[in-house]
Structure formats: structure tokens, C-alpha cells
Amino acid sequence: QKEVEQDPGPLSVPEGAIVSLNCTYSNSAFQYFMWYRQYSRKGPELLMYTYSSGNKEDGRFTAQVDKSSKYISLFIRDSQPSDSATYLCAMRSGNQFYFGTGTSLTVIP
Amino acid sequence: GAVVSQHPSWVICKSGTSVKIECRSLDFQATTMFWYRQFPKQSLMLMATSNEGSKATYEQGVEKDKFLINHASLTLSTLTVTSAHPEDSSFYICSAQGSLNTEAFFGQGTRLTVV
Between 20 and 30 A from A47 (CA), which of A40, B11, B82, B97? Predict the structure, then answer.
């Protein structure tokens, strides 16, 4: 079993839709949880990070962590065509980072 | 967020030559740097982890003599692909973590094409 599982998609939604991206994990030692956005042929860009269960909001993005279920989510409200990218979840234990495989998102105008 | 600069963004080289990729943390001291390789439509594959002043720790299956990593200062790490072959063509990405940061910040990536 992989440390981090993420549905690769692809996910296609109309502009304005709410997008839900999810990852599950198996290692209860993970302490920090991150979401990165990666455009084609670019390095990943950090969107959000959190270390506790609950929600963290930043503009149109909300990161949700449920440590009891070992499940994290990223919600994108009012999705825009510019949100079209691959979204990677990442988790950290000590000095080790573990990445999901990424979910490819396309927002259709 | 913190800025990590990776250079060059793309490079084409002949088979058998060596290529050096630089990764710099511009506004923080990176105690740890990570080097990844990414194939099209796939996730990041960790190649090695380097701590400033120490030898890099390579992941299983990554040839340390082929992928030379140097992390001589708190703001610079380099990856040298030695005797490159066409199968080394890929997207290489570095990320850096400062001692006070919980997250890692990525460079822009380097697309290497070996012909």
C-alpha cells in the first residue's frame, strides 16, 4: 500500500463549480499536510499547508484534514479556467515528504 | 512564500556529456534540499535528499555516481547528470526546506533533453 493515495483523475468541471480533491494516507506519523498546484512544465507551487485536523481557508481554497480518518481534502470554490492544473497532496513526517500522484483538473469556460 | 530558483529551466545536451543543474534558495537558508525527477503525467519521484555540508542520501535505484549532488552552502545545491544518455531525459525539480519551515518550496524545474 502506498503511503499516500490520490485519485489521478482527470477531473473536468465547468467554470464556477466547486471542486473537491482528496487524498488518503496510512501513516499516522504524518504531522503536516500540504497541497501544491503544478502547471504543465513548471515546478509545484505551494497552495496551502496545515498541521491540525479541521479546516483552513485561503480565498477560494479550503484545506480540510481529518486525522482520525487519515483523509485530507482541498476544496476550490468558484473554479476558474486558470485553476486548470495538477494538484498534489503532500505529507510530512520528520524530514520526509510524501507526495500523492496528483489529480489533473480542467476547468471548462 | 519562500523563493527557490532553479537554473537552467531547460537544457539540451549531447549523449555522453554532463549537465549541471543549480537550485538556490533566495530568501531563506535551506538546511535540506530534495531532488526529484518527474516523467510526463506522473508524480514526483524523489531521487535524493541532501543536508548542507553532508553527503546526499539517495533513494533506492538512483545511481549516486551518475547523479552527483552537492549541497555546499545553505543556499545552493547542484545536481550534475554525468555521462547523460537519452533515457536521462526528464523533468528535474528541486525543493528546499529551511529549518524553521514545515513545508518545502519548489524550484521551477529543469527540462533535460539528451540527444
Answer: B11
- The whole-angstrom separation of Cα B49 and Cα B68 is 12
Mean pLDDT by 10 residues, chain B (115 residues): 90 97 92 91 88 88 94 92 96 88 87 96
Q: Which of A44, A49, A100 sits opposite B106 (nearest CB)?
A: A44
DSSP 3-state assignment of A65? Answer: strand
Q: For residue range A33-50, what is the model confidence (pLDDT) as tens digits?
A: 999 999 988 999 999 989
- Is B105 an interface residue toward A (CB < 8 Å)? yes
Chain A CB contacts of B111 under 8 Å are 41
Determine contact, residues B9/B31, Cβ cutoff 8 Å: no
Any CB–CB contact under 8 A between A61 and chain B?
Answer: no
